Amino acid sequence: xxxxxxxxxxxxxxxxxRQRMSFCKCCTLTITVPLVCFLVWAVGSAVYTGVRHLHxxxxxxxxxxxxxxxxxxxxxxxxxxxxxxDILATVWLRGTAAEEKELRAAKVAAxxxxxxxxxxxxxxxxxPSPSPSLMQHKDLGTLQVQITMNDTTEDVRVDHALYxxxxxxxxxxxxxxxxxxxxxxLPITEKFKERLLLPDDLRVAFMLVPSAxxxxxxxxxxxxxxxxRAGAAGYTEDTEKTMLDLALESFAISVPLLQIHxxxxxxxxxxxxxxxxxxxxxxxxxxxxxxPSVRRxxxxxxxxxxxxxxxxxxxxxxxxxxxxxxxxxxxxxxxGFTKPFFTICDHTYENVGNLExxxxxxxxxxxxxxxxxxxxxxxxxxxxxxxxxxxxxLPIPVTRENCTGEAEPTPDPESIEVSLxxxxxxxxxxxxxxxxxxxxxxxxxxxxxxxDCEKMNQQRTAELWSGAFGHRxxxxxxxxxxxxxxxxxxxxxxxxYMLYVPYWWGxxxxxxISFSGALLTLASYFFEFSTVLYRAYPDxxxxxxxxxxxxxxxxxxxxxxxxxxxxxxxxxxxxxTLSRSPATHQERRSERLDNEIPWAPKLxxxxxxxxxxxFGKLREIRVVAEFSxxxxxxxxxxxxxxxxxxxxxxxxxxxxxxxxxxxxxxxxKTFGGGYRIGAIFALTGSIAHLLEFMPWFxxxxxxxxxxxxxxxxxxALQVPLAWQALTLPPVKVDKNDED
Length: 739
Known about the structure:
Elements: H1 7-10, H2 23-55, E1 75-77, E2 85-94, H3 97-118, E3 131-137, E4 141-147, E5 159-171, E6 178-187, E7 202-210, H4 218-222, H5 243-249, E8 253-256, E9 258-264, E10 272-273, H6 274-278, H7 286-290, E11 293-300, E12 302-308, H8 316-329, H9 349-352, E13 358-364, E14 371-377, E15 381-383, E16 393-395, E17 401-402, E18 415-427, H10 429-441, H11 452-468, H12 479-498, H13 500-505, H14 515-536, H15 544-564, E19 567-572, E20 575-580, H16 585-594, H17 599-616, E21 622-624, H18 641-668, H19 676-691, H20 695-698, E22 707-708, H21 709-727
Parallel strand pairs: 1-14, 12-18
Antiparallel strand pairs: 2-5, 2-7, 3-4, 6-18, 7-8, 9-11, 10-17, 11-16, 12-15, 13-14, 19-20, 21-22
Helix pairs in contact: 11-12, 12-19, 14-15, 14-18, 17-18, 18-21, 19-21
């Protein structure tokens, strides 16, 4: 309670009166707040659900003892983390069309003879009529299709085994990397000359089998571990497969090894190719002769085999219901077809998961004399998408065109030696999906006109992208470290340059800033960016990189000039005005300390350093030499003598400017000239870039660039600057400091 006797209390106006909220503001808050809360809840729920599904796509099938149907026996994983297994690889080459035609004719003759023998004592019947097949679709209605299927004349496929060996032994589901080479001889048969050549005409099949000492469990109960698998030659048409063979093949995978790409014809435009000669003779060939091309086969020599690491128990009822649904809809069966179409099968983990194969096993029980029945699901195998680079495509030397003007065509070799690089990794569903997504985003289109040097650079990119997500091309390589160093160097140098603009734009005082050092640094920026613009003119002058460089070349020096000259921008009615603020006591003290070393020695040092750079050729002396399997030309045009001297002068200006700022920081015991974090970014980026050249850290390098003495001198200046940034405080502005 206030009284008039106390003057302080008499002047107290009391609590501020609360304002009434307007109707519009009340309506806005009433609508906006619930809407924002709903959007946050919806987005958060969607993200949470998506992340959970990504980490465990089959979560709805997991066994839970609290479920109502938990009494149904659970389904166990066939392979656990404690068990070991081997991988058998078999390379198959499809037979020629003549071989398949011969086998088809033999099967037709055998079927006809069997049919004649079985019907010799009965009356003859008419030809079988086509059997109707109903196709039901909610948008198309019901269609009736007449299809004649003769079991004796179905497509016959002939495959020849070129290689069959166990390539991995003693693997576990916890292994993140293993590698092997598959060496075999590929015969150049007439199959590669056929017009209809498919990617899976040459394929490799991977089969997972238990190791000799697998550690027990359901997988060891599946078969006798003494059964020899190494060196199996593949099955022939007359071989009857056992239950063991069918069980192992049920979750094996087959991977195509061919890629078919159109390439320019080696013949003249007026000549013909095998593909053109096999096409319709009445079709026009004007377009083909103008731009002739031939589809040529390439052999993929690198792949990554993966097994999805799934160890959870599945609920028996839910698993069988999901498997029944998959059987009814897989490979086109959902459209009403009576037979699956394997060309449209979706074998992705998100679609089939571990539902393809279910085993009923008799497992011995140590506590009892009798065995018990246990259900187990098979592991899921697949290969990583786009796991190869351009250098991993081996052109198959086969002639697929007839050049009419060539007197003696070069004969095709009878066979070639092939070496396949196979990598293995056990991955979680989330990591596998993430790797496939990034592989699809970074896929490189095939370019037949790429030079060897371009392919080498593209191979390095493919190696880094694949290695970043779990596929190492070589055992002694560390691609994730290289990706980390590349990103660290790029991010650090980008942040270093980006921090210059807000620092100089926000300067309210020049205290702690070396005036001479800032001018020298400003001049180095101007020369550096001007050289880039000069070299970009006129071809690349409108590119995004050039325009960004031009913006920095103009804006950053102007901002620095405004800061060091204390220029203020104002307005006098309709036109801008410039005024200069007088120096404060702190600013005059900084100028006196900076001027203790006059301009003449600094400029002389700039000139001397530029001459040492120029005549000593410090930019050409390799501290770390480059190496490459190929001699590739430089991607940049050679510099003229004037351009070279301007670059060396730019380096000298930047170095002397940094030295001037370091000397002022030492005298004032404060850090100025930039943000302290900027100096740390500069040193961090330099160290990261330097480590990229160290094989003991990044592992195997197919090729690398070089480091010059000039670059190391610049790095040497970043060390004391970073030390000052860590040990010295920033410049403090005294608010009571007057002019």
